Amino acid sequence: MSERSLMVLGTASQVPTKRRNHNGYFLKWDGEGFLFDPGEGIQRQMTRFGVSVSEITKIFITHFHGDHCLGLAGVIQRISLDRVAHVVEIYYPKSGQRYYENLLHASIFHNVAKIRPCPIQGEGEIFRDQSLTISTLPLSHSVETWGYRIQERDSVNLIPDKLKEFGLRGPVVGKLKSEGEVFWGGRRIFLEEVSRFRRGQVMAFVMDTRFCANAVELSRGADMLVCEATYLSSEAEEAREHGHLTAAQAAEIARRGGVGLLVLTHFSQRYFSFRPFLEEARRIHRNVVVAEDGKRIGFPRRRREIGGE
User: Fold this and answer.
1) Is 293 annotated in the active site?
2) Is residue 303 assigned to a domain?
3) Residue among 30, 37, 67, 223 flagged as catalytic
């Protein structure tokens, strides 16, 4: 059975707190497992919240500030220790190659991990298979930072009763699906007459950035947007200076992008209550949740149309 959900492993920006770990997010997407920005202490968080290292198929690093990457060394060593059988791809900014190498060789261990480094050199598509496309765009932080977009391909589901009604069976059905129309039973039959369009789902990951056009573009039509909200609007100038977003700005990105569910995270250590983040964001975008360490967030139900401005 397929499963799509986000496990929040940590929500603290810059430094962990007594209640919150460094960043870390695990997206379960059917048979794939995507780990985003593993900060310090991520192994323990995975153990606490039931995420096995063997579930990880891809790791995404937005940038090489410590709260977004210090846990990578331990994760790689655990992949090796547990003899994970499949190849794990790691995506990261090519400009941070030396930091990646430092983390890969952070300490002595018997390295049998099957790791494939995938340094990002430019915007656009970085992965494609029969069901998924993964793309990236640069963001506006104090260092080179990339946002990610996971997009399922649109598909068409044939309706058995409709096929039966038109007497369609055998190889002609495959031809109809591939070509969009066939001549059968003395008439031309079009694919849309016997099928239902299924819009592919989208998840966007936007971390450590000022408000920028690329953040909106990454989130365009996303069913779920995981977005940093380091500050409240009362600290908007500080947010801009340090290359971060307020909760209101994250909500504005979601509104302009036509996002389904906005997940706020990456909160500054100065805040102890996150209700103000929720209230600030909901004044702009209705469907908002605040991430909490250990919270599992189910993927929203599939939407038929892409919204947004």
Assistant:
1) no
2) no
3) 67
168: containing domain: 156-195
pTM (predicted TM-score): 0.88
Residues 197-251 pLDDT 10s:
778 999 999 999 999 999 999 999 999 999 999 999 999 999 999 999 999 999 9
Q: Which of 30, 33, 11, 32 is nearest to 22 (CA)?
A: 11
Within this chain, do residues 135 and 49 fall inside the same structural domain, yes or no? yes
Domain count, the chain: 2
SS3 55: helix
**274 and 168 in a common domain:** no
> If we measure between CA atoms, which residue out of 117, 74, 115, 80 comes closest to residue 96?
117
In a domain, 305, yes or no: no
Give the pairing of strands 146-152 and 4-10.
Answer: unpaired
> Is residue 228 assigned to a domain?
yes
> In the numeric block, which tokens belong to residue 225?
């947007």
Burial of residue 280 (CB within 10 Å: 0-12, 13-18, 19+) is: buried
